[in-house]
Specification:
heterodimer, A: about 350 residues, mainly alpha, 2 domains, 19 helices, globular, B: about 240 residues, 2 strands
Chain lengths: ~350, ~240
């Protein structure tokens, strides 16, 4: 994005926070639609719970801080945070998980650090990680795709799963990343034949690959609309692909999975286009975004392959959020008229 | 330096200059062992004991200590008392001693204790130093217990579990289930991030209370009608 202003008359775009946020929200549509098709309406319940909680929290905090609540609710930033958290949470999790996670994201991670534009960490990912380390069992139960478990839960089943004491175990299946990670006995090609989630899909598990394509599509829309730049997503996906290719191990029983599995399963595409492109908690310059994205890809692969969690995007994003200010410091762009990049703390040109 | 009055010393230790909330000293044990109330009370009492006795001892020998060896000498005195507490805990509350582990010997390095020895005891006479050590210890313990209680309720849904480790068989049934038996337990409260979060929120609460008191006080000041001072910078008290 160019911030340079020429002399008048200025041609100004009508972009503001609300418009950008609504475009991001619209871009999640294909991915969410794919999730509804394969996993049923659970994701919509999650999103609804998250959004309601987030808006209530946002309004309450704004009232406490003595700011106009309606004005800040209309910029849709809390809505997008809640939307992203709702997508990230496992479908049909108990109702209090989205509520707690959304409240943590808005109150602790966003407003305690100064609110919109000041949060050093991605709020949706903080909410997700707090839930993941607090309630690891509930947070790692994913329902199987409709084709694997013989039909996604119906609406009445969904309601009793989320609000009642209905046990979810009958619907859950291991995710593709978990299956590959836990496999120690058979070749990958055999695994793809035995496990229904792979045999009914093409390369990264039935359902997951379609959902990933959905988010990829949404991400391309955001790129086309110039809401995000290509740097961070491309760097992340390239790093992840390169590492998974290096450790692919030609599909032995100890293989960590093919590059296609890592790119099109789990949270990769969703994270690459919707999480790490957050302009607040990420790096600022284009060079910085390349480093930031590569770091997220690196940590995601390391934790997926050798850590104790099957998917790792949230941890990777938070780790790189820590590093973002340092990255910014070393990737200052050169301003016009100066021979080399200067930071605000430099006293005079060297 | 004039010795402050006992009321001032008490207010400083418990609230105004609280070691944990204001000086932010002794954060390592504060964050590490406050997973439950019993741990918090155990470590708090041990710290208070050491703080009180080391303050008294440092104050008694303050004239014999040349400035050049003041800090090492204070550390030696503190280490002696920590060893005493450690042996006492081994004798009377062995399980609690095992649970607190390395953090009992680490009281030696607790900055709150060395800080009080250096800032107060080495400059004041015996009795004020004793009171200062005790009040600082109680203030520290109160914060430990508050953080421990919040973390135990959020993390396990209980309060006062395992109190018999500290107080013997009388306390066996003290355990209260606060949040119902179906409460899943937010592990984050028991893990280190929970300690940082709860401590941070506690400091924020203390500051909010202080601001509230200050506001209340400044409102009480009556503006005398007909005052000649029209324009002032700052508040008239």
């Amino acid at each position: 994005m160019s911030l340079m202003r020429a002399t008048s008359p200025h041609a100004r775009s009508g972009d503001n926070t609300a418009k950008v946020m609504l475009q991001v929200a619209a871009a999640t549509a294909p991915g969410v639609l794919a999730m509804v098709i394969y996993f049923g309406i659970g994701v919509l319940i999650n999103i609804a719970l998250c959004v309601v909680t987030a808006l209530l929290c946002e309004a309450a905090v704004m009232k406490l801080r003595g700011r106009p609540a309606a004005f800040y609710l209309r910029d849709y930033s809390a809505f997008v945070t809640a939307l992203l958290l709702g997508i990230a949470l496992p479908s049909y999790c108990a109702w209090w998980l989205p509520v707690v996670g959304s409240a943590v994201a808005i109150v602790l991670s966003k407003h305690l650090y100064g609110g919109m534009g000041y949060n050093p960490f991605n709020p949706a990912m903080v909410g997700y990680v707090v839930l993941l380390i607090s309630f690891p069992v509930d947070m790692t139960r994913w329902v199987g795709a409709a084709e694997v478990i013989g039909g996604a839960p119906s609406i009445s089943e969904a309601v009793s799963l989320v609000f009642g004491s209905y046990n979810i175990d009958g619907f859950t299946r291991a995710t593709p990343l978990e299956i590959v990670r836990l496999n120690e006995s058979v070749l990958l090609s055999q695994l793809y034949e035995i496990e229904p989630i792979f045999s009914r899909g093409t390369f990264a598990g039935v359902g997951w690959e379609t959902i990933s394509f959905g988010f990829l599509l949404g991400g391309l829309f955001l790129l086309f609309r110039r809401v995000i730049t290509w740097h961070a997503p491309v760097a992340m996906l390239a790093t992840l692909a390169l590492l998974s290719l290096l450790f692919y191990d030609s599909g032995s029983s100890l293989s960590e999975g093919s590059p296609l599995l890592h790119l099109f399963s789990g949270a990769t595409m969703f994270g690459a286009f919707f999480i790490i492109t957050d302009p607040v908690s990420g790096a600022t310059s284009n060079k910085g975004r390349l480093i930031f994205g590569a770091g997220v890809g690196l940590f995601t692969y390391i934790i997926r392959a050798w850590g104790s969690y099957p998917d790792a995007l949230a941890f990777a994003v938070l780790l790189m959020n820590f590093a973002a200010p340092t990255i910014d410091n070393y990737t200052l762009p050169r301003t016009y008229g100066h021979k080399r990049p200067r930071s605000a703390t430099d006293l005079e040109e060297r | 330096m004039a010795t402050p009055a006992y009321g001032e010393i008490t207010r400083n230790g418990l609230w105004k200059n609280n070691p944990a909330l204001v000086q932010l000293l002794g954060l390592c044990p504060l964050l590490a062992v406050t997973g439950s109330v019993v741990n918090a009370i155990g470590l708090g009492l041990a710290t208070t004991g050491v703080l009180t006795s080391s303050n008294l001892a440092v104050s008694l020998v303050r004239r014999q200590m040349p400035d050049t060896v003041r800090l090492p000498a204070s550390v030696m005195i503190i280490a002696t008392f920590v060893t005493c507490v450690e042996l006492l805990m081994q004798a009377y509350t062995y399980e609690l001693y095992l649970m607190l582990g390395i953090f009992i010997p680490l009281i030696v390095t607790n900055c709150a204790i060395l800080g009080r020895a250096d800032a107060f005891a080495s400059k004041n006479s015996a009795l004020p130093s004793l009171v200062d050590g005790f009040m600082m210890g109680i203030g520290f313990t109160a914060v430990l217990i508050t953080v421990g209680a919040v973390r135990e309720i959020l993390g396990q849904g209980t309060l006062f579990s395992n109190m018999d480790l500290l107080l013997g068989p009388i306390a066996k049934d003290w355990r209260i289930t606060v949040l119902g038996s179906h409460y899943p337990g937010a592990l984050v409260a028991v893990l280190p991030p929970g300690a940082f979060l709860v401590t941070g929120l506690l400091i924020a609460a203390k500051n909010a209370i202080d601001t509230g008191i200050e506001k209340h006080r400044s409102q009480k000041v009556k503006i005398v009608p007909g005052s000649k001072r029209v324009r002032v910078t700052g508040r008239i008290v």
